[in-house]
Specification:
This protein is mainly α. It has three helices and no strands. Helix content is 71%, strand content 0%.
């Protein structure tokens, strides 16, 4: 959006960003909720997740500054860096969950205090 010159390309970029964001939030909430056992722990984790998302919205107002227009390079760079960090966290947790499931299947580990619980990947 900030790198394109034409308005059509910018509007298409806004469409892609909005579609990605709207698909990202329920997916991330489901990933989090499916991998936590217990009603109260799941409720607390969901509340923290939504709260940190709100803090991201607040920080967005300070990262995308008016003096950086029209390209907003610092804001876009910060958004890309945060998305890369999320990808690294998801890959790391998925690897951990896969290993824990494998150990639980072999009987070497009990996940979340239940022999039948497995992480959802």
């Amino acid at each position: 959006m900030g790198f394109a010159e034409s308005s059509a390309a910018r509007y298409f970029g806004v469409f892609l960003v909005t579609a990605g964001t709207n698909a990202n939030i329920p997916t991330a909430l489901a990933y989090q909720a499916n991998n936590v056992r217990g009603q109260w722990k799941r409720a607390l984790c969901s509340a923290l997740f939504v709260g940190f998302g709100g803090m991201g919205g607040i920080s967005g107002g300070t990262i995308f500054r008016a003096q950086d227009k029209p390209r907003y390079i610092p804001g876009i760079s910060a958004a890309i860096a945060c998305n890369c960090l999320v990808i690294i966290f998801v890959l790391g947790l998925s690897g951990y969950f896969w290993r824990a499931n494998k150990q639980a299947d072999e009987g070497r580990k009990i996940i979340e205090g239940s022999e039948s619980f497995r992480y959802t990947l």
